[in-house]
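Convert to structure. Protein one:
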Amino acid sequence: MRSQADVRGGGFVEREVLRAFKFALDPSPAQAEALSRHAGAARWAFNYALAVKVSAHQRWRAEVAELVAQGVEEAEARRRVKVPVPSKPQIQKRLNEIKGDSRVDGRLPAGAFGPERPCPWWHEVNTYAFQSAFADVDRAWRNWLDSLRGVRAGRKVGYPRFKKKGRARDSFRLHHDVKKPSIRLATYRRLRLPTIGEVRLHGSGKRLGRLVDRGLAVVQSVTVSRAGHRWYASVLCKVTMTIPEQPSRRQRERGMVGVDLGVKTLAALSQPLDPTDPGSVLIANPRHLARAEQRLAKAQRALSRTEKGSKRRDRARRKVARLHHEIAVRREGALHAVTKRLATAFAVVAVEDLHVTGMTASARGTMDAPGRQVRQKAGLNRAVLDAAPGAFRRQLTYKTSWYGSELAVCDRWFPSSKTCSACGWQNPRLTLADRTFTCPDCGLAIDRDLNAARNIARHAVVADAPSVAPGRGETQNARRAPVRPDDRKAARHGAMKREDTRPPGQVPPQRSNPLASPPTQKQATLF
């Protein structure tokens, strides 16, 4: 959610935000073919623009190699060679000059269109399918360069790759024409898309239609994509939302809740989600993937027995894709239901700063140092990803800002499961097999997840506060990756959730992160 303007008064804030409304489409066969044609055109435009950039990059590398062969230092050769990489305007202008037109050249035999006329069918699809793909290539190229130079936060971004039909997701984006409204709801059950026409919705668009009629929403663009057996349209709008400035009386009465995400249970809460039900402190894990595992395995075995390129294989592939899509829809719906209840029921929702990528890293190891219990770790990784803790926090991040509550984050290295929530005693030998936390000092015996939830609620810091937690030292480096404690085991792995058992007053020594080091001369002078 991007804030554009705030208008305060009366305990509420009118804020303009970018919000997407996603609809399942029910297109006719002709419309489904048109949607596939647009997705193919967007994929072709992406590959065309990327090929132009890669060609320029290869020319730059060839000229640098030529200078190095002549005895010039590589760093000096990189500074000398300047090969401009075309951007969206140059690529689009060049394509308009050579694209051809099948309506004019229709008398030519099939296959006569070569590199001189690469896309004579351009008039069959909307022009924004090309332009949005060119913009996506520019963004992908810029992200790779920024990551290579060390100015982009987060994990390393690889070299942009071409999109392959059948492997890349079918998707395209169309922009709204302000002068001539091209993207709009014709009725509450029909969405008008430029060039394609009015497509029937599987559900109702009444919510978006009423916002547009009242002048509270302005359509910006629409992204059409295929997932499984369905086409979806995500309509991006600039919406004027009325957001409460502070929590409601019911939220203030409930106060703060600590949320410990896990696999055995989806979430453990420091206080019941429903005040009338004491058992609602534990939210059961639906385990969507495990429930569909037998059907999915059967469908995948059937797929493996088919011949590549056959129609039977295509049917088997669509069946597997449909099962995966149904699992994803159920998972997303369950998470939305839980996160909305948390955001609307409490004034502050406290969670852990989990690093899901590190938690689900493979245990295979290397040829010289193979890993142990690889199959068990792979099963744990599937269970963690099925619970989707990253999506859980992402949904809480924007929903708490919508419903007047706040999101608090607990330090990644705080030992929430190993610390007694009553007296603060720590058990450094607690393992994942120990499901009950027993404190020898105060005699507390409690479920380990409930104990962790109470600790999270006690030690979490509101997300808008400074990133340095009191008494714990810095928790993140310049690349937003966590600083690992001085531990040999931690030094071998990437950043992940690890419970530090040092006393709260002792700050763990910080190790340098290789990702946070300044870029080398070779990286900084790519072009």
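Protein two, convert as well:
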Amino acid sequence: MTGLTAELVVDGRAPQSPALAPNGRRLCYVLAPLSRTGDHLDTALWLVDTDGALAPRRATADTATESRPRWSADSATLFFLSDRTDRGTSQLHALTLADGTVTTLTGWQAGVIDHLPLTDPNLVALLAEDEPTEQDARRARDRDDTIVVGEREPRARFRLLDLRTGRITTPHVFGDRHVVELRQRPDGGPLAVLTRASADNDHGPRSGHLHLLDPATGTAQDLGPVEADAQSLAWWPDEDGWHLGYLGLTPPGLQAGAAVFDLAVEKGVLRNRTAGLSMCPTELGQTDGAPLVVFADGLNATLARLDATDLTVLSQHPGRLDTLTATPAGDDIAVLTGGRYQPPNVHVGPPTGPLRRITTTRPELDGIALGTQQPLAYRAADGLDLDGLLVLPVGRTASDGPFPLVTIAHGGPYDRYADRCQLFWFPSAQWLAAAGHAVFLPNPRGGQGHGHQFAASVAGRVGQQEWTDILTGIDLLVAEGIADPDRLGIAGWSHGGFMSAWAVGQTDRFRAALVGAGVVDWGMLAATGENGQFEAALGGSTGWSGIGPHPHDAVSPISFASRIRTPVLILHGAEDTNVPLGQAVYLHRALRHFDVEHELVIYPREGHSIRERHHQIDVLRRTRAWFDRWLRP
């Protein structure tokens, strides 16, 4: 078998955004490279017949960033965004399937952000920022680039494109609010429009409102505020009229499990339809009848139907189901899913299953030896049921242990490890397993897949029980002879980076650590990160919460820097606005002050995720070399 290389990991292409035609016969998806080599990420639209009669084929031939495929109601036209004319500025295009003709439909100077073909075949709803004004042009000529916060902030506006005339109109019905999402009622009625006070990630998620908009008259009705971080709109009819559903965070906090909220539009009654469940909804799927709901269910996924009074489970699937798309009748669906040793591909079938794979986008991985992956179930110190994954070194079995063990904490913390292929550019299990390490992927409390209370329990208490949950799993693997207690490492990215930095300030058990884009000071992050309110909910306080010491100091790794003796590899993107670079610099200076062996690696032009090919390769090689150095001398 061929060995795994960093190039094999980052040079692949992955399917995204599957869109099933209303007639169920064809599907369009975006094929995107896993890494970027130039100034733009060149993506492509592909078409595939769902019956398997024809192999997948390119829908267009341009070098461009193509995205957001949407079908017309008659399945004859595919609308999509592309920057083929002006790289970096997307416009709406239409592909006529009968003759393969591609037509450019907009020339909006600010570009188009999103679109929705309406049931009226002559209308397409658009989301786009305002075009530059003469004043903007004059400022540009004068090189007046002064930024005044609160002035001229970008907003996505609702607009209507008339395909007969090419004219774009902007109904001024939402004031200065930022439009997030649109969903037309299946019978051709009004549009549900989700708005926020601004595009600011710190302020916006708490300020959502729902509206109804009549596309024929341009008039709108405000249905009032929605729960925090509302998204994934879906309509359905019921005996008491139309209902409108969305996913939102369960009150009162921003760190909480998501729920399906059901609004009876005429009565104005809002219900939480998933309260008390031990799984977490991840998206709603629109049909002409009852909507479909995808759930993160432990290590796996569940697909259900939201009936009038009940939630009916339709099928269960290993790993994850992502980006659900369904025919109007709801009798066929398409999703992205994979397996323990297969990366995600497009699968189709009835919602009751089974699902059939119709794309094969990473054949280069065929024949690559991967480590055996197995689910773990264990109990926390307080008796709470927990799960996770264990990946053994390639070609080895548990009886060959003990092995050097790297524990990789997941991000979020409202994320999870699912029983899917664990091979990515960031610290990932199969990459380290190929170098002879066993890898533990824990799902401590605070994550997704076990209901609201499980997720909400870490708010203001990060690094407490979620840390002991992880330790309990490590102790189990040591006791079972799988992990060598003298060769333990810990790693993570984002919130996982926080957990790694926290771990080495609490114990000297680990021989090496990797902190990727990690949080080291919650007060600093609440003040400077783009998700400040969310970070304040996790840390428990802010710097303006009065004279300290503050609660967030007690859960910030930087407070324990004097205790760190473990060698630490710090990786961070220079342009990260989620967890700004200052967090990494802060840890670096503290470790330098206390003379702790460490490396700080900064990736220019990169944000919270590393995108450029040579940087991703560096992350992979540096990660493996670091743990080889300290755990496999």
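The longest strand covers residues 483-493. DSSP finds eleven helices and 36 strands in the chain.
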